[in-house]
Amino acid sequence: MIASWYEILLICGIILLPICYETSHKFRYNFKFFVYYFAVMINSLILIPAMLFRAKDVRNLVWAGAFCRHISTVLGLRWELRGAEILSRDEAYVIVSNHQSSLDILGMFDFWHVMQKCTVIAKKELLYTGPFGVAAWLAGLIYIDRKNPAKAHSVMNDCTDMLKEKRIKLWVFPEGTRRNTNEIHAFKKGAFHVAVSSQLPIMPVVYSSYSTFLDDKAKILNNGHVIVTTLEPIETKGLTTEDIPALMERVRNVMIETFKATSKEIEVKYGVNGNGLATTLNSGGKGRFRYLDELIKPKLGGGGVAGGDAGSPLVSNGSSVKQMVPPLVPDGVHRRKD
After folding, report:
1. Rounded Cα gap, residues 193 and 203, in angstroms
2. pLDDT at 85 (0 to 100)
């Protein structure tokens, strides 16, 4: 029986897929993001019926995390959470975090079970992204119109009573737009207005740099290890709107210090620079570049990082927050039990 064109194309696709994945970093970049977004959409479709029974309940996001955290394993990403006992406190906080990529959400999925009750400020455009937008709405995400700052501030301020009453954490990316430029950019005032007006503490959460494995311009996404550090909350009691600029500067400076320290730790561990490249000399004496993907595989596979595989989550207690350069994995780090 002669094979149909469909079967021939399918066979060719199966053969070419691993070849393209291994030989083209642009193909690998686009393929990984396709897998990420597709898996999130499928998980959203699965979860929507269950979420309908407790619509707008932020605990639905714990379900989402349980389903979606395995995507990190597929993509070769490892999230090491430090200060888990701070993040798990059953109190209302305004969490501010640096924003480098849509991959930040994968990190959140990985430790949403630690936060338990946490919602996110998101741009309203996400509401129209199919199943994901619907599932996010059912999970209690707060959508704002970034093109209308006055309305956005009003929506954020209106949610403060709910945060206090139910002891919910509010996660905000104060930089606004995500930018993977190996730095923490200037903050917008929205999150700080909410914190001061409601007198809620600000809890900084810092992701180490993605520049060692992600380059959006060059279309590179390799295996990566990210340290996510939860810092002690900063009180806002007694502060007024006049104190917001100084508060923003204080929070940003603390986050920058942690960002630099943890990013440097990753670079030292895997022998890469801030551009995600490691230079080695071949036998001919010419410089050759290897991406973190090539360096991290044998180390993760062989148990070089807490004996885990790529994508396995790590959680450490607060004792490791202050001392971050080396060792990479301090005492008290343990792998999360699924």
Report:
1. 14
2. 95
- Asked if 316 and 329 count as a contact pair (C-beta separation under 8 A), the reply is yes
Residue-wise pLDDT for 146-178, tens only, equals 777 777 777 877 788 888 889 999 999 999 888
Q: What gap in Å lies between CA 290 and CA 277, rounded to an integer?
A: 6
Element of type H or E holding 170: strand 169-172
Q: How far is CA 180 from CA 29, 99, 190, 225, 266, in A?
A: 15, 8, 22, 15, 16
CB 177 within 8 A of CB 68: no
Q: What are phi and psi of 85, to 5 degrees?
A: -70, -20
310 and 76 Cβ atoms separated by less than 8 Å: yes
Q: Does 38 score more than 50 pLDDT?
A: yes
Cα-based angle 143, 148, 150 (whole degrees, multiple of 5): 95
| Residue 86 to residues 22, 81, 92, 184, Cα–Cα distance (Å) | 40, 11, 12, 22
CA gap 296, 224 in Å, rounded: 7
Q: Is 69 helix (H, G, I), strand (E, B) or coil?
A: coil
- Rounded to the nearest 5°, which phi and psi values hold at 290? -125, 135
State the number of CA atoms in the 13 A half-sphere of 248 facing the CB: 20
Q: What DSSP element (H or E) covers 79?
A: strand 77-82
Report the range of poorest mean pLDDT among 7-16, 192-201, 233-242.
Answer: 7-16
